[in-house]
Predict the structure.
Amino acid sequence: MNNPMYDEFAREYDSAIQNNSYNAHYERPSLLSLLPEVNEKTVIDLGCGPGLYSKFLVENGAKVTAVDGSQEMIQIVKEKLGDKIQCYVQNLADGLPNEQDQTFDVAVCPLMIHYLEDFTKLFSDIKRILKSDGIFIFSTHHPFVDYQLSPSGNYFLTEKIVDEWDTVGRPVRVEYYRRPLTSIIQAIVDAGMCVITLTEGEPDSHMQESSPESYQKLSTEPGFLFLKCKVVS
């Protein structure tokens, strides 16, 4: 999938999401609120990007493995965290072939699965590598929001979307997939996990000052979807 924001513009992206509205003041606090205590836990950060979650996890005592499809993002993570973390490049559409069964207490996957046309293999491998009491937490685009961009007008299809985002301060082409909520939940169930928490998040108070228009929008409309899942015994 052609997404230069995470390759060509990787460092600009890293800088932009440190304190912006949708990432820093909506997505991250919403997803972090679902995390269990991670001190001395083994955690895998899937679609780690420039390592903001990995840094938080390391600072809170977790033993972290970070994985991303972008070599540039993994290089940024290595520069930031060095030998405090294990990290490597992997096309997550192919799952997690390098990881052993029942290795991790927690898997986190922030805003990544919508870049995969099919995440069946990934979800299956997440279940495989989690311990029997393991937790999987992820965020993704809200299906009701993405449906507004559907080229077919058929909500129940999985469709490729081509858009432009100005995350790095100028329009950059992005490609991702939209799909119905049913497909997301069914993939979780088919992998042998169940949803224990589902939220639509909320902006934190800092956004009210930095971007009141975005704060109003995200306080009254959905933006992303946040799910916490556990392994079914």
In short: Residues 147 and 154 are 8 Å apart (CA to CA). The two ends are 35 Å apart (CA to CA). The chain is about 30% helix and 25% strand. The chain has one domain: 9-141+180-231.
